[in-house]
Amino acid sequence: MTDRTATSLVKPNRPHFTDVEGLRAMVGQGDSFGVGGHHFARLPIALLRAIARSGIKDLRYVCWAGGLPLELLLEANAVAEIDLCFSSLDIFGLPPRFRAAAESGVLPVRDWTALAMIQALRAAQQNLPSMPFQLPDGSDMLARVPGASGEPDPISGTATGFIPPLRLDTFVVHAQRADENGNVQIIGPRALDFAMAGAARQVLVTVEEIVPVGALRQDGRQSILTRNQVSAIAMAPGGAYPASCLPFYVTDYQRLSEAFAVRETPLAHNLRLPFEGVPAPVREAAKVRAETVIAMPAMAPEKKNASVDEIIAARIAAELDNESFASAGAVSPLANVAYRLAKATHAPDMIIATMSCGHLDIEPSPMILSLIESLDCETAVAHAGGDDTYSTYYQAGAVTHEIVGAAQVDRRGRVNTIALRKPSGGLIRLPGQGGMADVANMHRDYLLYIPRHSVQSLVDEVEIVSSARGLLTPAEREPMGYRTGKALVFTDLCVFRLDQTSRELTVVETMPGITHQQIRDATGFAVTFDADCQQVPLPSNDTLAILRNRIDPLGLRRLEFVSAKERGALIAEILAADRAMVERCIAEQQRLQIARS
């Protein structure tokens, strides 16, 4: 980090307007560098490509997620240090450059809990020497977060985490619009954008368009980064492509797939905006309305028997009811399917929040890959950021369920999603825990899934405890303001419950056709079976029809259950089906527009 972070974070009352190259020139060698947006939404790709080409070095990358922005910067050898909570390329799997850097030890990688990072940014934003946060009880994460410590609260004496300020030199973000005064409009989920902007010495923004003063008042459900928080703005139509920027264009998954597949040319080159601009189909897809998609006839029903992914999705859905508030985290197709299935069948009044609670209270629209974000954005009752999501919902104990995948779980229900040690001694880097270390205790029900049950995934003791239900019993949870619920692990062989007395996993249900011995043979610890252990019921024909033809017509849930070798072919199949489905939706939307006119 450069010594420029010691200077005031106060910015001029009005940003100056420039172009992408002008913004790029403002990034300094060795800057502590944050990136806005979320997954494949509103990423400042045009600016990141310019930074990658500039020869800048020694950046300290600081962000909740790594993903595509970090891959671009690592490819250009621009990064010297990495601070994050999670890194994934969504359906495309683990980021290869991040994995290589982490596994080789070439670059220091510091894993944060989401709440610790939020509070550290807030400390910088609010000019405070530290901020408190709820401890991630049961995990190893407190010792891994830079500068964090557990101390008695000075008033109550309760064990509490404290974190010093996390200051940024430069924060870059793409947004929908700015007005001529420099106020910046963000539509939809805003991730950690506001907290990071407040913690940054300079905020550099690319936008799709610049509008007259007063025009931003006409848009509903937006967030405004006021002009005194912004340093400089460049108009860059298509500046997030091939990521999305609603309502202008959706994520171009086909282009991303092609960019990741071609290794002969740099990623920065493969992600360039076409000369003619954002492709028409990607722009037209952003115009498709939820009512159009939901009203379209469902696909023809399939007659085949239920597959294990469908059985697990239906079984998880059975955990939900009309009082549920279910949050879908970073990359969880199975959780998304289960939530939407429950809301479309027996729990119409439940609340579903997607994109890490950025879309609040969505409708259960079909999971069409290219349209998921836009349909959720449209049907959501409200949009939120990751920072206020924590303080309003997670820390308050308001969320009942957040179902997440785990790479490795031990007999005490502890999870490792950070790294595994090879027999040779080397590391296998995993995506990271995201926010699971925090919410494992905060949410009423602690639900995990392991799609492929094996002695490698279910072990006697995990190497790194990235998250765990440290607060398990009512006596432990109620003083913290948390409700007590179930702690379950779903696999393709069985369902475990974390017993409150023994604090170890017990098999309470088996998958159809699976024997006790098969489970014992595939588990890396001595298995205990509950006295009332039963078989998981098969989903009804009606449930299967809704799951297959209305909720998940592309079969995105299958991505969780295939091996790395099978994943490429399945992604190609899904992308082809997605393209056909989107074309169908665009044609129907255009037909309706013509009929109305």
Automatic annotation (TrEMBL):
<dbReference type="GO" id="GO:0008410">
    <property type="term" value="F:CoA-transferase activity"/>
</dbReference>
<protein>
    <submittedName>
        <fullName>Glutaconate CoA-transferase subunit A</fullName>
    </submittedName>
</protein>
<dbReference type="InterPro" id="IPR037171">
    <property type="entry name" value="NagB/RpiA_transferase-like"/>
</dbReference>
<keyword id="KW-0808">Transferase</keyword>
<dbReference type="InterPro" id="IPR004165">
    <property type="entry name" value="CoA_trans_fam_I"/>
</dbReference>
<dbReference type="Pfam" id="PF01144">
    <property type="entry name" value="CoA_trans"/>
</dbReference>
